[in-house]
């Protein structure tokens, strides 16, 4: 798998003129899940700054009960407050982790900025311990820069 090759496909998916934004994001989630074998759940959460909550957007993977997450709660909620990437090699070692499924072993969350404001994040769960590298972080930052163009 070559992240550089995947970047071109990300741009293509997000530039589909005849599709609504949510469908583009869902297609992007599916593409990432299909092409990176340790990306087992891929989705977006979007911030409601007034209520200080995150709301589940398009995703692929197992269904989740976590459709609304308060800022500060879990990995996603912490990223909403910190505005920084959060890589969790082993979710069982995290005190403030919201368990989604016993199959989830690790997680990466990268904030999504539009005009300097954190409007949400991409959240990826893996069934593998410690698969995420700095290359994943840079790639997902690129993905979010491209997604930001939709807003």
UniProtKB/TrEMBL annotation:
Top-level lineage group: Bacteria
InterPro entries assigned to the protein according to its UniProt record, in alphabetical order: GAF, GAF-like_dom_sf, Phosphatase_reg/MetRdx
A Pfam short name: GAF_2
Domain GAF residue range list: 42-143
Family membership noted in the UniProt record: Belongs to the free Met sulfoxide reductase family.
Xref: PANTHER family: FREE METHIONINE-R-SULFOXIDE REDUCTASE, GAF/PUTATIVE CYTOSKELETAL PROTEIN
Name of this chain's protein: GAF domain-containing protein
């Amino acid at each position: 798998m070559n992240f550089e090759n995947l970047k071109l496909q990300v741009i293509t998916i997000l530039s589909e003129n005849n599709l609504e934004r949510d469908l583009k994001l869902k297609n992007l989630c599916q593409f990432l899940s299909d092409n990176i074998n340790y990306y087992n759940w891929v989705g977006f959460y979007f911030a409601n700054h007034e209520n200080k909550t995150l709301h589940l957007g398009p995703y692929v993977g197992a269904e989740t009960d976590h459709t609304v997450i308060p800022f500060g709660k879990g990995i996603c909620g912490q990223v909403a407050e910190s505005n920084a990437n959060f890589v969790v090699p082993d979710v069982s070692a995290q005190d403030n982790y919201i368990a989604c499924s016993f199959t989830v072993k690790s997680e990466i969350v990268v904030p999504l900025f539009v005009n300097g404001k954190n409007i949400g994040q991409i959240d990826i769960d893996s069934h593998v311990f410690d698969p995420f590298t700095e290359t994943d972080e840079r790639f997902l930052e690129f993905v979010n820069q491209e997604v930001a163009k939709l807003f």
